[in-house]
Amino acid sequence: MLDLLLLLLLAGFATTLLAGIMLTIFKKQIAFNDRVNMYFGEHFKKQKEDLLKDVNKKSIKMSINTYWNKGTEILNKRVSKAERKKLDVLLRDAGYPFKSAVDFRLFQIVLSAGLSLPILFFLLPGSDNKMLTWVMVFTMALLGFRFPVFYLGKKKTARIKAINVAMPDFFDTVNLLLEAGMGLDLALVEVSKKIKGPLADEFFQTLEDMKLGKSRREAFYELRKRVPSDSFQSVITSLIQADQLGIGMAKVLSNLTVRIREQRREAAREQAMKAPVKMLFPMVFFIFPSLFIVILGPLAITLITKGLGG
């Protein structure tokens, strides 16, 4: 027993002596590390936490992409060519907010399921009125399925409006470059780089088609199909005809910009003429009742309380 106690005391003394020697040798390095941790420890800790967050986000994104790709593979076999063509037209008019028609259809299904399944699993078992709950389930499923189509329609309207607004300045700048001696293709490239927006993106796509071997006429025909704007389609038709007949593009664009601005002025006048008709219904249903209550209300109260002789 005494020998064991002596061994323990000897081991403790040796450990303490070794620790003291190591602290003496590495004293400067330990002090340096303490100062680094004091001033930069929070930064390194935050950097490590950000790195872990990025890794988690990437893993979640990879898992979502994996399941999404599986869903598109399954749905790709079930979407017919006619349906795919119809969805491609909707996506093209909206500026392709989704990669493909299959991705759009899968998004519709996921949104529809995400809105209807919680009601089905959580509200239906404890609901007293099953019929009303089923109506809610089908309504939310239909709403989730149709809302992306409504979204594409809004995107299409906003895109056409942005193209119509950008056309006068865009073609004016192209006309200036043509008058300065630049070719049409190079002028379109330069103006598309300077003026950002859906109109520039469409011309970039047209120029890429021409680089891949299409003629200017074919590329402009495709451009006219992609943009469902009447004024823009008339401009592109005029450019195609001028290219076929060999007419100077500068003169054609000069006349076209004047016509575009006239069309915009006429559209503004038309909207101004429609304003009184649009204001009629809010005035009848919201403003006039309030005025009648304020003006005729005291008279009605007096007649009710005191009668005609009051």
What characterizes the major β-sheet?
Answer: none
What is the name of the CATH superfamily of the domain at 160-275?
Type II secretion system (T2SS), domain F
Summing up helix and strand content along with how strands pair, one would put the structural category as mainly alpha
Report the end-to-end length measured between terminal Cα atoms. Answer: 119 Å
Strand fraction: under 5%
Provide the helix percentage: over 70%
The oligomeric state is single chain
CATH secondary-structure class of the domain at 160-275 = Mainly Alpha
Mean pLDDT: 80
Note the run of SSEs as H and E.
HHHHHHHHHH
CATH-assigned fold name of the domain at 160-275 = Receptor-associated Protein
Low-pLDDT segments, ≥5 res: none
Please identify, by name, the CATH architecture of the domain at 160-275: Up-down Bundle
Q: From the alpha-carbon coordinates, what is the Rg to the nearest angstrom? A: 36 Å
* Number of E-type strands: 0
Shape descriptor reads extended
**Number of continuous helical runs:** 10
What does this molecule look like?
Helices cover 87% and strands 0% of the residues. The chain has helices spanning 2-25, 27-76, 81-93, 101-123, 130-179, 184-194, 198-211, 216-226, 230-245, 249-306. 13% of the residues are buried. The protein has a domain at 160-275: Receptor-associated Protein, CATH 1.20.81.30. The protein is mainly α and 310 residues long. The protein is built from 10 helices and no strands. The model has no long low-confidence stretch (mean pLDDT 80). α8 (216-226) packs antiparallel against α9.
